[in-house]
Design a protein that fits this description.
globular; phosphogluconate dehydratase activity; 4Fe-4S; Glucose Oxidase, domain 1; eight-stranded mixed sheet; 13% strand; 14 strands; four-stranded parallel sheet; single chain; 6-phosphgluc_deHydtase; alpha/beta
């Protein structure tokens, strides 16, 4: 028998409900009005409707007759992004599967879809975070045609899932299901990949050896297999009940993957307003669903990027959620999964060991997740504690049983560590996030002199010159949302890892982001307020002593910052289209609020 809900989770949930009351009520009133207005194809003029089904070919007659639901696909397909390459054939297959249940499907629109793996350390990474707002706006444009009774959201990777959800929530009167495509097969071991990266950082291997290693890791269609932001997205969609149960980590091309997508199409047709089981997105994504997403993030050691994305997604549904909520939940939620970079195995090993079915079952058994959320699937959240499979040609679900690998997955009563490892650190240098689950406890506290930089390249140049061979806290500032779009600082990881392996006490403090796969080096990231405009990091100087402690939640310096003038704000770089994103940078709010200009300007 499952335990009653944990007291801390209950308290945080109630605080989020109380803090969200007015904003959430206004949001639900909006979606209720939209539902009552019948904003769909039944209310369009003949000219409007004729334009909308002119290209529908075999489905023209059915759309014209309005005899069944018309489902809109918003797709982030491109074949440069490995995780999204399998989406190429999804729309034509979903059209066929919709006809099986008297429904029709149209591609409502597409969204941009950046690959952060391609843009890491490059100029294009400065567009990455704000691509989330562009994706949300593209989703709104796609759904503005008022043709649809439900929404299938085809997206997986870093900013794409949050952006799709943020846009779709403005059409929260419609049901919506996320349809993933699954991870690529496992390549070389993650330990080997990291070994070669660090050898390259030290100049001990060349570009040819590095490229061969990377190509053996990222080698085929599907999501990258480390547990970064993309795979954390899939975990959260399961925790929020927005997938067909167990859909997250089934590989592309498998018969099971095809049947899960077919099932998603059928289910979306069944949960519309006229289907007798109405499940609009606005009611599925509520305060408890957001809390469940945060719990899943903590229990599995997921991406630090979601400290930014979760508040933004919550705001889009009229919900107030911040880092204090996340940190308090972390104190109650144990770490029950170790997936690379927090462990040796990747998401394929995680899935084979029991995956999301095991995780959700373990959390529910210990009263560590809300069991009573409304999901897109029949059977409530408990249905997500089962794993999908095929019996003959039939899609079925079964109990995943005990963990298939105790080094990968453990029961909540026997965790890897008693807390979720996402700490809030704060002090006179601001508020920041510290991902403790990826860092050895002996490194939770670092006190050392600062070396202050304003970009990644300068850090790596100083490393190459040997200037960082000491106990050091590397500060990389002017990397916040208003300064340059808050890029991930992925190029820092090998150099800092080498310094740590040499025996130095090393840490990073930045108002930028680290990769969703950030690893073993202690880091205070997303520091807010950001340096631009005179934030505390802008007043630091080389040699200032900084204390970073995940145990006490401390991010401080004894330096008299108030007595100093801040470093001058840098001019934004041009090229790669960055100048066109000036409106996003100028209007963005802080990282803890979600770093969104779209939400800030909309007053949400």
């Amino acid at each position: 028998m499952s335990k009653s809900l944990n007291d801390t989770i209950h308290r945080v949930t109630q605080r989020v409900i109380d803090n969200s009351r007015d904003r959430r009520a206004a949001y639900l009133a909006l979606t209720d009005r939209e539902a009552e207005r019948q904003v769909d194809r039944y209310g369009l003029s003949c000219s409007n409707l004729a334009h909308a089904f002119a290209g529908a070919e075999d489905d023209q007659a059915a759309i014209k007759a309005a005899g069944g639901p018309n489902l809109g696909i918003v797709t982030a397909y491109n074949d440069m992004l490995s995780a999204h390459q399998p989406y190429h054939r999804y729309p034509e297959r979903m059209k066929i599967w919709a006809r099986e249940v008297g429904a029709t499907v149209q591609v409502a629109g597409g969204t941009p879809a950046m690959c952060d793996g391609v843009t890491q350390g490059q100029d294009g990474m400065e567009l990455s975070l704000f691509s989330r707002d562009a994706i949300a706006l593209s989703t709104v444009v796609a759904l503005s045609h008022a043709m649809f009774n439900g929404v299938a959201l085809l997206g997986i990777c870093d900013k794409i899932v949050p952006g799709l959800l943020m846009g779709a929530l403005r059409f929260g009167h419609l049901p919506a299901i996320f349809v993933p495509s699954g991870p690529m097969g496992t390549g070389i071991s993650n330990a080997e990949k990291q070994r070669v990266r660090q050898l390259y950082a030290e100049g001990k291997v060349g570009r040819e050896e590095l490229l061969a290693s990377e190509s053996a890791s990222y080698h085929s269609p599907g999501t990258c297999t480390f547990y970064g932001t993309a795979n954390s997205n899939q975990m959260m969609m399961e925790m929020m009940g927005l997938h067909v149960p167990g859909a997250a980590f089934v590989p592309p091309g498998a018969k099971l993957r095809q049947e899960l997508t077919r099932s998603a199409t059928h289910r979306l047709a069944a949960i519309g307003k006229d289907g007798g089981d109405f499940r609009p997105l606005a009611r599925v994504v509520d305060e408890k669903a957001i809390i469940n997403a945060a719990i899943g993030l903590l229990a599995t050691g997921g991406s630090t990027n979601h400290a930014i994305h979760l508040p933004a997604m919550a705001r889009s549904a009229g919900i107030a959620f911040d880092w204090s909520d996340l940190a308090e939940l972390s104190s109650a939620v144990p770490l029950i999964a170790r997936v690379y970079p927090n462990g040796a195995g990747d998401v394929n090993h995680f899935h084979d060991a029991g995956g999301m079915g095991f995780v959700i079952g373990a959390l529910l058994d210990e009263g560590l997740a809300h069991a009573d959320i409304l999901t897109v699937w029949d059977g409530g959240f408990a249905a997500y504690s089962r794993e999908p499979g095929m019996e003959d040609d039939t899609l079925t679900w079964r109990d995943p049983g005990p963990s298939g690998d105790a080094e990968m997955l453990r029961p909540a009563a026997e965790p890897f560590q008693p807390d979720g490892g996402m700490r809030l650190v704060e002090g006179n240098l601001g508020r920041a996030c510290f991902k403790a689950s990826a860092v050895g406890e002996e490194r939770y506290t670092v006190e050392a002199p600062a070396r202050v930089f304003e970009n990644q390249s300068s850090v790596n140049e100083a490393f190459t010159r040997g200037e960082l061979d000491q106990d050091v806290i590397v500060v990389v500032r002017f990397q916040g949302p208003r300064a340059n779009g808050m890029p991930e600082l992925h190029k820092l990881t090998p150099a800092l890892g080498v310094l740590q392996d040499r025996g130095y006490r090393v840490a990073l403090v930045t108002d930028g982001r680290m990769s969703g796969a950030s690893g073993k080096v202690p880091a205070a990231i997303h520091c807010t307020p950001e340096a631009l405009g005179g934030g505390p990091l802008a007043r630091l100087r080389d040699g200032d002593i900084i204390r970073l402690c995940a145990k006490t939640g401390t991010l401080t310096t004894p330096a008299d910052l108030a007595a100093r003038d801040p470093a001058p704000d840098p001019r934004p770089d041009m090229g790669m289209g960055r100048e066109l994103f000036a409106m996003f940078r100028a209007n963005a709010d802080g990282a803890e609020q979600g770093a969104s200009s779209m939400l800030a300007m909309a007053g949400l």
